[in-house]
């Protein structure tokens, strides 16, 4: 795609909500990728 930006949005669901270190390991490669912007992260802990 020459001259055009592409937007890919996804909302993954990982069952690691209480393990912040593991969540960082999942997110970190996206932060380091050139040309990729991580829009945001939200961690929700659901107690069942």
Short synopsis of the structure:
The protein is mostly helical.
Q: What Rg do the Cα atoms give?
A: 14 Å
Sheet bearing the most strands, described? none
Task: Give, in order, the helices and strands.
Answer: H
| Distance separating the two termini | 45 Å
**Structural shape:** elongated
Considering DSSP H and I runs of 4 or more, what fraction of the residues is helical? Answer: 25-40%
What is the total domain count?
1
Could you give the count of β-strands? 0
Overall pLDDT: 77
> From the helix content, strand content and strand pairing, which structural class follows?
mainly alpha
Task: Count up the helices.
Answer: 1
The stretches of 5 or more residues where confidence is low (pLDDT under 50) are: none
Strand content: under 5%
Report on this structure:
The protein has 48 residues and is an all-alpha fold. It has one domain. Helices cover 27% and strands 0% of the residues. It starts with 19 loop residues before the first helix and ends in a 16-residue tail after the last helix.
What key phrases describe this protein's structure?
mainly alpha, 1 helix, 48 residues
SSE topology sketch:
Layout: H1 20-32
């Amino acid at each position: 795609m020459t001259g055009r930006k592409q937007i890919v949005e996804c909302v993954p669901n990982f069952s690691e909500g209480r393990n912040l270190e593991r969540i960082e390991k999942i997110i970190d490669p996206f932060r380091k990728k050139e040309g990729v912007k991580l829009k945001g992260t939200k961690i929700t802990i659901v107690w069942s």
